[in-house]
Amino acid sequence: MVYRHLDKTGTCVRLLFADFSSAFNKMQPHILIERLANVFNLPDQLLLLILNFLTGRTQRVLVNGQISLPLMSSTGSPQGCVLSPLLFILYTDSCRVTQNNRFLVKFSDDTVLMSLLSGSEINHGPALSDFVEWCDSNYLDLNVKKTKDMIIDFRRSAPPHLGSSIIHGEVVEVVEEYRYLGSWIDNKLRFVTNTDSIFKRAQQRIYLLRKLNYFNVNKRILCNFYSCFIESILTFSFVCWYKALSMKDKKKLQSIVKTCSKIIGAKQRDLQSLWEERVRKKAKSILGQPLHALHSEFSLMPSGRRYYVPSRKTNRFANSFVPSAIELLNSEPGRVAQ
């Protein structure tokens, strides 16, 4: 969505990465239970079970070997509990935006307000004030100091200042890069910082691989170690960003694979082939889920074999996931035009 919008003339994107202060601890059981009953129509027995789970919890604190007196808590949901993220998702389900070209992207307690701006638009507008008002009325505290704003603007005649986002009288800091869901996003969509971070982490683990090889560990175990502890770092979320990298950054990451191959004594798969495999797999998974947000992006041609390739003006959009996935699907045997 971001890449497609930026491919249009005179557009930019503004992202507000919201940070909640102790999000799970601030949930109000009485509000949650009311929504589960009225909106999601959960049975009474399940509602009572959830209410019993959230209220009357006894807690103690251990400090310097001393245990505090018990304190009863009836607010929030225990952190580290499998049920807590699901309850938070249901609790915040009514937090939505109604303005055009404004979207809330939510993953548990990680929330992003995305504004697709055009022409003279400069800020999030009423969508931000509505979001802040919803948080206040539902007892969720926004940490303004940790909440960040990012402006992605490739216009040559872009205004020098697009205005500040204000929350509770405080100005939200505008940043050039932000770590979201484990990956670094920058306002140029080049993922240079993300590449550097991955490279450093992978190099640290190469040391462990060298040690295992020094102790004459079986080659099969070395391959498993590489796959689990190094390749997993290199390929984390890379269906989203790998094709957007410069050739220099691609070679930088590929050098990790080459080094590990030499240490193990067996060639490991290159990142390009892994990326193509993962993109195809992800695209086919989306095609099998009609309710997926990207499902509508894949439209078959009248022949029923190939998919329409979206028109694009920039390499930036062409290198994004959807166009790349469609090109890979169309290149599969049986789909290529005779």
TrEMBL record:
Stored SUPFAM superfamilies: DNA/RNA polymerases
GO MF terms held by the record: 2-oxoglutarate-dependent dioxygenase activity; methyltransferase activity
PROSITE patterns, A to Z: RT_POL
Domain Reverse transcriptase: 1-166
InterPro entries linked to this entry: AlkB_hom8_N, DNA/RNA_pol_sf, RT_dom
Pfam families assigned: ALKBH8_N, RVT_1
PANTHER family per record: REVERSE TRANSCRIPTASE DOMAIN-CONTAINING PROTEIN
Protein name, as recorded: Reverse transcriptase domain-containing protein
Source species of the chain: Nothobranchius pienaari
Phylogenetic classification of the source organism: Eukaryota, Metazoa, Chordata, Craniata, Vertebrata
